[in-house]
Structures are given as structure tokens and as C-alpha cells.
Amino acid sequence: MKRIVIGSLMIVILLIIGGAVFINSPFSSSSDPTLPDGVKQGETSILEVNAQEPEDRSVKEFDLTAEKTEWNIGGGEKVNAWTYNGTVPGEPLRVTEGDYVRIHLKNELEVPVTIHWHGMILPNKMDGVPGLTQDAVQPGESFTYEFLANDAGTYWYHSHQHSSKQVDKGLYGSFVIEEKQKEYDKDEFYMLDEWAVNQEKRDITNMGGMMKGAMSGNGESDTEQMYDTFTVNGKAGQAIEPLVMKEGETARLRFVNAGYQQHQLVFPKNSMKVIEVDGEEVKNADRTSSVLEIAPGERIDVSYTRQTSEPRVIQENANEEHADDIIIPVVSSRNDDSVQSNRSPSSSEVATGTSFGSEEIIFEEVPEPDVTYNMDLNMGMDMGDGVAFQINDHVFPETPPISVKEGDIVKVKITNSGNMNHPMHLHGHRFQVAAKNGTNYDAPIVKDLLHVKPGEEYTLYFKADNQGEWLFHCHDNNHADRGMVTIVDYKGVYSPFDLGGDHKNQPN
Ligand SMILES: [Cu+2]
Questions:
Q1: Fold of the domain built from segment(s) 59-182
Q2: What is the distance in A from the centroid of ligand 1 to the CA of 422?
């Protein structure tokens, strides 16, 4: 199969020629794709590494049922959602650092599902990736996830089976590991998402959207045209639950972007400080920002102080389409319905997931790597399958794996030579972002998801200290679905699972 890398002009030409062609994911073909050889080779099964036991820890147990739900999104709009325990987001899970967590998943949907614990450092077999770390949980069946919850912070969970569809349908929820000594009296979780309510979810290769992006340099345009409604905690516009606070009070607000589009939230001036990114505390947490940009899959915690008794709002930046869907009123009591807008912030105050260095870093100095992997992100086309999102000119599972052995220091240079934004997420590890566009950060950033925009180049390092087979993929799952996935493949261990097959394992 011949694949070619294409630029903006080529996209336009190819879409004009091939715009009417229906495109299938690699998983809809009759023969199943196969994992790279290295992933299937090794002495030890991934089921046998890094076992954890509750020992004398307190055990927290939860039941999550994947089920169909008619979900009221607000404004009289109902969507046919798939949920964990009947709500969007699914049941919020909170535990305390040091707990041993056990979650029983029951699948009452007509399709197989899993749960991935996004951001958690856990044993590989608990990572919830079908076809790699487990078989997808079939309709009527159950699976138990268990792991130590050691690192306090903000996490989330979502299905990793055919994610581009299942996370879109609502199979996600919040997961907090609380500190033993809580710093904030008020602690709220906000999950952002996009839905196609008034339209069928359009194919990502929709000619209009793709052309617009290719021509304008807007790295979000392919995803933007797929959705028409934004939500906070499953609700749009006036259905969003207000944040009830007294004047002078400070709250911890945990934001997760469960959607596939970046969002910018605008706060009243001097009221917001970024305190944690991807579960890692940041330096300079005393610096205020007015706008928070959060990438797909990313998690950012802020402290927010209500400075006045006047009603205020936290809302989507007005330059985004559907901005009016995301308005969180800040009020003194639930009956207070006076909402005031505070738009037009200065753009220089935008904080992103890479604006602040991390309090605790992995490497004090830029380390000497044992393994170097150059990861080129681009779009391509193959004549059979249409538009592809590629790593090093290939689509998963043909993408070259990052081959490591335990103890290696791994350097990954990510270059986005395409036209779309790619929030790249690594499972089972945290990495240290050392440089952007060839310049070292004074204060490196420890993360597990990095938003790489067109033309950008980042260098990151991680320690191969968690044996297994781990995904490294774009968290715009519409891109992952079309190939932008690779595997960190530890030598010496193998996955006993397979893509496709009777379990219909579909990890992207
Ligand atoms: Cu992407």
C-alpha cells in the first residue's frame, strides 16, 4: 500500500478529486490488522509484570455500568448517550492518596467497552487498552480494574475501545486522588466536551472543513466542523450548574477537556491562577492569568478567587464558535440568576499546559538518552483508505514502535509538519518537556499530554520505568482512529492480546 505525505495544496486537490469517496477505518476491513512484531515478542507476558497488592491500605470500591442513557443536554435537547452509571460525565470517583482502588465495570451496552485511567501510573494490564493490555469487555460481561492511587491529582477515565465514537457518546468521567491534607474548602470538577446534536457527526474528511483548515492555518478546523454544541459536565448554556461561592472565597477548579477541540476559558481579571497541569504542581503558581487554554485530553487545575459579591462568569472565549454554550455562572446562591459577562481579555494572558514549569522534575539536567525516536506528525493519503493521520508516514498498527528496555532514558523529538493540532498522550509514564523549537525551557514541564501545533517541534524525555506495552497517541481520537498511534514497546515483555478478532478489539 503506497502512502504519500501531503501538504495543504495537495489536500485540497485530493479532496476535490476524492471528496465523494467513503473512507473506512483500518478496522472495518475484513482481515484484522496485527500488532508490530516486537509487541508480540518477549519472555514475559504483560499480565505478569508490576503486580500490585492492597496490603494494609484502605480499599475503595466502585461499580460502573456502561449503559444507554437518554441524556438531557439542556435547552430541551436530548442526546442518545452511552454512560457510566447513567450520567454524563459518568459517576465522579474520588479517593485519597494511598488508597487501593477497585472498580467493577459491567457492560450493558450492545458493543464492547473498556476503561482507561487517563494519567494514572499503573500496572500495564490495568491500562484498559483493548487488543494490547486486555480484551474488550463484551456485552453482558464484567471486568475489574485495581491499582494503587499514589499520586494526588486530577485524572479522568474513559473507554479506550473505538474511542473516537465511545468517548464522543459520553463514556467518560472524573477521577480525583485527593491529598490527605486538603488545601481548598471548595473543590469542583469541570469536564468540557463537544457534541453533534443538530447534525449527524460529520466525517473528518468533510471537504469544507478540511479545505478551510488547510487554507487558513487553523489547526482545529477539521474537528470544529464535526460538532455543533459545547458542554460543561454534560450540560450546555443555561443548564450548566452555577458555581456557588462567597465573596473572598477561593476554590480549586479542576478542568478536563474530554473533547477533541481545544477550549479557551476566560476568567474575571486577576482571579485565576494555574496550580496543577496533568497532575503535576506548577512553579510560579502565584501568577494570575485571564485565559486558560486547554487541549483535548489535557487536565489543568486552577485556584479561583471570587473577588466581588457581583455575579461573575467563567466562559468560553468569544472568538470560539458555540462560545455561548460554555458559561459557568459564579453566584452567591442557587437562586441567583443574574449573569454578567466579562469578555474581551488580553490575549497575552493566555495560560496553556506548557506556560509553567513543574515543581518536581524528572531530570535535573538534559539527560544523555539511551533511545532516540523522531516522531513526525503529518497527514497523508492512501488511495484505498483516504485521509490518514500519520506518525512517520505510517498509520497504526504499521507505525514504527518506540522500542525500549527497562531503565532506558528515552528521548522523543516530536515535529508537527502537518496542518492540524495534535495533543499527544503517553500512557503509563510522565515525560519531561525539555525544549520547544530548539530552545530549552528554563523550567522544564512534566506532563503526559503535549499539544503540538502545526510547525512546532518539542523535545521530551522519559524514563522507561514501567514495563509493558503502552500507547503514545493523539488525543483527538478522530485522528487516532485514522492512524496517529504508536506503542512504547518494552523488550522482554509481550502482549498476549490481538487487534480485532472475536473480541472486536479496537484500541484507537
Ligand atoms: Cu491529532
A1: Immunoglobulin-like (2.60.40)
A2: 3
CATH number of the 3-21+361-494 domain:
2.60.40.420
Cα-to-centroid distance, 476 and ligand 1 (Å) = 5
Give me ligand 1 centre to Cα 453, in Å: 9
Choose which CATH entry (2.60.40.420, 2.60.40.1190, 3.40.50.720, 3.10.180.10) describes domain 193-351.
Answer: 2.60.40.420
Spacing, Cα 89 to ligand 1 middle (Å):
23
Q: Find the helix or strand (DSSP H, E) in which 387 lies.
A: strand 386-391
Name the amino acid, one letter, at 101: V
**For the chain, domain boundaries:** 3-21+361-494, 59-182, 193-351
CA of 480 to the centre of ligand 1 (A): 7
Query: Ligand 1 centroid vs 487 CA: distance in angstroms?
Result: 16
| 492 C-alpha to ligand 1 centroid (Å) | 30
Q: How close is the Cα of 417 to the center of ligand 1, in Å? A: 12
Give the Cα separation of 30 and 501 in Å (integer): 10
Q: What is the pTM of this model?
A: 0.92
E-assigned strand segments in 24-139: 44-45, 59-74, 77-84, 93-96, 99-107, 116-118
Q: What spacing in Å lies between the alpha carbon of 51 and ligand 1's midpoint?
A: 33
Residues 6+ apart with CB under 8 A from 474: 377, 389, 422, 423, 424, 425, 480, 484, 485
* Residue 466: burial class (beta carbons within 10 Å; 0-12, 13-18, 19+): buried
pLDDT tens, the chain, 508 aa long: 334 444 544 554 444 433 333 334 444 445 789 999 999 999 999 999 998 999 999 999 999 999 999 999 998 889 999 999 999 999 999 999 999 999 999 999 999 999 999 999 999 999 999 999 999 999 999 999 999 999 999 999 999 999 999 999 999 999 999 999 988 989 999 999 999 888 776 666 655 566 566 667 788 888 887 888 999 999 999 999 999 999 999 999 999 999 999 999 999 989 999 999 999 999 987 888 999 999 999 999 999 999 988 888 999 988 778 888 999 999 988 777 666 665 656 556 899 999 999 999 999 999 999 999 999 999 987 666 678 999 999 999 999 999 999 999 999 999 999 999 999 999 999 999 999 999 999 999 999 999 999 999 999 999 999 999 999 999 999 999 999 999 999 999 999 999 999 999 999 8
Cα 64 to middle of ligand 1, angstroms: 29
**CA 245–ligand 1 middle distance (angstroms):** 37
Distance 421 CA to ligand 1 centre (A): 6
Cell numbers representing residue 211 in the block: 479545505
Residue with cell 469578555: 343
- Report CA(62)–ligand 1 centroid distance (Å): 32
